[in-house]
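User: I'm curious what two different proteins look like when written out as structure tokens. Can you demonstrate?

Assistant: Sure. I'll show them one after the other, since each token string lines up with its own sequence. Here's the first protein:
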Amino acid sequence: MAALVLAGCAVATQRQHQPHVAGSVDGTVPSVATAGAYPTAMPPVFPVAPVNQGDLLNSQMPQVQMTRVGILVPQTGANAAIGTALLQAAQLAVFDLNETSFQLVPVDTKGTPQGASDAVRSAADNGVKMILGPLFANEVSAVKDAARGYNLQVMAFSTDWRLAGDNVYSMGVLPFGQASRVADYASRQGARRIGIIATQDMYGDAVVEEFQRVAQHYGINIIKVVRIDANGGNAMQAVQTMTGNNVLSADRMPYDALFMPVGGSALRTLVTGLKQYGVDSSRVKFLGTGLWDDADVLRNPLMAGAVYAAPSPQLRTTFERNYQRIYGSLPPRLASIGYDAAALAIVLARNATAQNRPVTFDRAAITDPNGFSGVDGIFRFNQQGLAERGMAVLQIQGGTIHVVEPAPQTFQAVAQ
């Protein structure tokens, strides 16, 4: 088992371009990730199926002061599969960090706002000191007020950043850091003329605004911005707008790069249409976000050479292998957030205990500017409750991803 490392030791300085990240400080990053292998025969520590909470808490336990943390996920209903994966990943963290005085209390939200609100009361009645989850935005909205009434902090799994703040923190991998990281990379590769195609929704608004902000900082000229429907129904019209409905020759290409934070069928339509108009990844650098972290995107030959910003894949690969070894299947992409949330809770509890302080999961500890290191790399929470993460720059080659620039290992400030 990998030992838990707490803050305090000096670390090597790395250059990092993350304009969206607030002021950095010196310090190490306490690790909540693991590098060791798991015994193949070892069962998870806590049951995965919905449990009777009374039975869980009345079971024979060592006579130690337990730190109980609730994990609120759908264990029944249409979204039970993803809820179970999040729970199993969190249990894996408890098993790996081997904290005998820490206990997860799983509560079923049923995937509904009312179920999530009821789950908070159930968890609070069982003495939890913090909430992990829930998953969906409408659940988080319902949980926020309910948890505040019990003075509980909430580590939400939702990526709806509008819900963060006060007692709610967003554990999701948010788009802001991805947009700023890839914009920074493009500027250092000499791209000065960039076009943008993004969806007409909240996600598109966020990435376009952030990319434009960083582009302005580096003197990048945004040639044209075109927005499309989230389902990509008007993607070909966007291609025609970007190209002036003309086949573009290499010597008259108006773009050095295209930023396309789009996934799924919409992206397929875009790159196929662009190819027909003379725009491909051999002539124009394709830039994207973690939406491209998808097997279908990687297999698309028209995406060869495209680059995007996302959490580093190395630690997640180890996590996925260990998850499969214990649970018998590969985890969904979102499961790593469940692991990191549980591991973070254990780190904070251990840190408080080591300092002879009561385990309260207070705001100062959660927003430690040195941050933490998890399955998806380093992360920390700003004062708005949003997770800021160190991003890698990845390139698609031959159906696989290659690290062009590794993710930073520290939020340490660097003199410019």
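Here's a second, unrelated protein for contrast:
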Amino acid sequence: MDRHFQGMIETAVDAILTLDDRGYIKYCNNAAGELFGYTRDELVGRDIEVFIPRGLSLLSGQAKINGSIVIKKDGSKLPIEITGSVYKVDNRSYYMAIVRNNTCRQELLRLRGMYGNESETFIRAKTEVEDLKKQKELILRQQEQIFELYVYSAHTLKNYLSTIITFFDLLKRRKNKPEKLHELLEEDYIDSLDFELKSMYELLVSVLKSTTVNNVEENDLNVCEYIKKNLLPLRMGKKSSYLKVQNDFPCDKEYYVRGIAVNLNTVLRNVFNNARDEVIMFYGPWDDNLYVEGNIAIDDTETAHIIINGYVKDNYVKISVSNLGRLVPDDRKEVIFEKGVTFKSTGTGYGLSDCRKIISEMGGKIWAEDFYNKGTTFCIQIPLANVIEGGDVDD
């Protein structure tokens, strides 16, 4: 073979193969090895059909074969286009095959199907613009997710810190009253404070994990246990310490849902706090200067101000939180779950929207309905993960 001609073949971009009249590879260039994923020694002497199905059709004298594939060494497949020619040496036929990677051509044909018979340069420019748009949309979504994470974390921490601040306010007001201080320490407030601090820690760990590997661990969560823990701080504070709370959620069995602990805490805390605030606003307004501990108007009622109930049905756990507060108008029962919407002077408008997002991610739903024309019930429905017999019989 002429050295100049051989040099051209060796440096060619396309794969070039020489076959004998039985279809065995006699020669291949460097590009063939790269395309097929084999060394040249591994290719030479092998049957062409090992690498190109129906490759023997080249021996029939076809000048061009479209729609074929090459099977690479790693098992992957590439679309190819083959141009063939025949020549004779010493009265024996040999065949030259030029094999071209057809991936780019197929992509171009696909784009032409989308954009019509535009020029290749124009089509590529369009695709680059579309890629930039997609990158921009991705960046905007990431920014929105970061903002949502910030708001969610800030709102949840606010709830935890509010309970801790209230506890220390109780300590300050009772520090000169030993008998009152002793009562405070005997109550569940210490347990509540412990729960709040641990929940804050779990939240911060979750935030750190979500900003690094985006893989916060899910667990089976005992619904009854989380209801009780999040009810502890509900009556803490001088405006809410005389609220009557009735927990009728069935705890004869342990009902488990699948989720992230800090998220379930967030949902229950938001719903419980909203119920408390609705009762306080219904019986208010309050004047702190006229407040006297143990003499609050809402203490006169015998009916519980907040009632927690629930049941299990069709593999779902339903938790209902009812309050004897304000009625939510029908046209606002959906609006209150929208981001930034609040009907409280101190509200942020993110609590209930976070709750709906979390419950939706858990495969459930949350909604509001009237409570016998006396207030509002928030209903939470979550898929049941597990049931263990023999829970707490007494509350």
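A detail about the second structure: Residues 120-174 form the longest helix (55 residues).
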